[in-house]
Amino acid sequence: TDTKPMMPITRATMSCGKLRENNATAAVQHDKSNTTSRTSGMTINVLDAFNSGGGQNRGSTNNWNYEFGNLLMISKAKWTVKGGIQVNRLNNHSESFNNFTGTYTFASLAAFRAGTATTFTQNTGNPVLDLKQTEFATFWQNDFKISTRFSLSAGLRYESQTNLHDFNNIDPRFGFALGLTKTSLIRGGAG
Questions:
Q1: Distance between CA 68 and CA 6 in Å, rounded?
Q2: Are strands 103-106 and 43-46 parallel, antiparallel or unpaired?
Q3: CB within 10 Å: which end of the chain, N or C, has fewer?
Q4: Who contacts 15 (Cβ-Cβ below 8 Å, separation ≥6)?
């Protein structure tokens, strides 16, 4: 198994005084693994006695994840606006040949000697799974400081991905914060 954690390729933050900030990130992750049995013959499982035959767990994965994000924030004395995007690309490939030659299970040693298996299981079909998906999200939010004790926020978020053909994913958000004392605050919101 060879797994490498998500490694940032680029991280850049640009500031223009206290008014503007832009933060962009890009990252790539690659996971790869292989499993191979010493033998892949049919398996015999005699309960409370012995197991014999092949291990039958052959498989592999080769997964890539690419990520990009950008956050822009502009601040003024009583108003802050934030906006951003995030794009994720998944390229996953896996193969699983587990139990493709079959497993006989016998209830006892006497049943094994008589040749009467309790069950026979075998996986069939296509052992290969390829997944390719792109996920996209963007948001915009405004925060207004009405007074030293009261602020309002409003914004929108949009999300989509290529494997679901549903592209009307707009989520409005509204919120408030009211300071009661120096240490007490009430927050509320929806979205």
A1: 12
A2: parallel
A3: N
A4: 21
Name the range with the highest mean pLDDT among 17-26, 38-47, 87-96, 182-191.
87-96
At 126, which amino acid appears?
Answer: N
Tokens of 137: 């999200």
| DSSP H or E segment with residue 73 | strand 59-75
Structure confidence at residue 1 as a pLDDT band (50, 70, 90): very low
Residue 182 DSSP code: S
| 83: its two tokens | 């906006």
Bridge partners of 140? 83, 156
Tokens of 111: 């049943």
Burial class of residue 46 (count of CB atoms within 10 Å of its CB; 0-12, 13-18, 19+) = buried
27 contact partners, CB below 8 Å, separation of at least 6: 6, 7, 8, 9, 66, 67, 68
> What pLDDT, on the 0 to 100 scale, is given for residue 23?
84
